[in-house]
Amino acid sequence: MSKADKTLLWMILTLLGGALALGLGAVWLNIERMDVAYDLRTMEKSLGQKEDLAVKLTVERNNLASPYQLRKLADRLELGVAAPGQIRRIADTR
Predict the structure, then answer these.
(1) What CA dihedral angle connects 9, 15, 16 and 21, to 10 degrees?
(2) What is the pLDDT along the chain (94 residues), one digit of tens a residue?
(3) What is the C-alpha separation between 54 and 58, in angstroms, rounded?
(4) Radius of gyration, CA atoms only, the chain
(5) Residue 68 CA to chain centroid, in angstroms?
(6) I need a labelling partner for 53 at 20 to 30 A (CA). Which of 2, 36, 60, 87 fits?
(7) Which of 21, 24, 19 minimizes the C-alpha distance to 11?
(8) What is the rounded CA–CA span in Å between residue 71 and residue 67?
(9) 40-44: which pairs have CB atoms within 8 A and are 24 or more residues apart?
(10) Cα dist. 93→51, 88, 90 in Å?
(11) Is 85 left (phi over 0), alpha (psi -120 to 50) or beta?
């Protein structure tokens, strides 16, 4: 083999190695992209569920704190309006 043939063979092998490395890099990046997309979809779903729960809890809190519900609960527990002298105020000593 002549020196020109060895140089040509070396260049071809180098180019093939580079092409292989670039191909493997592209495959790895695609796999990483898919993993990130899956994680993002999972987090978006979780966020949506938490937002839905927050809305439901807000509605429930407003329902439980409504004057109608409080009056109904007070009647069931036999509570009434405080008479004069039954309320004691404690000063904040902070």
Answers:
(1) 150
(2) 788 888 999 999 999 999 999 999 999 999 999 999 999 999 999 999 999 999 999 999 999 999 999 999 999 998 888 888 888 888 887 7
(3) 6
(4) 36
(5) 36
(6) 36
(7) 19
(8) 6
(9) none
(10) 39, 15, 9
(11) left
- 60, 54 Cβ separation under 8 angstroms: no
Amino acid of residue 30 = N
Place of tokens 């009647």: 75
Tokens of 33: 């992209």
Structure tokens at 36: 């990130």
User: What does pTM read for this prediction?
Assistant: 0.58
Rounded CA separation 67/80 (Å): 14
Burial profile 48-64: b = 16 or more Cβ within 10 angstroms, e = fewer: eeeeeeeeeeeeeeeee
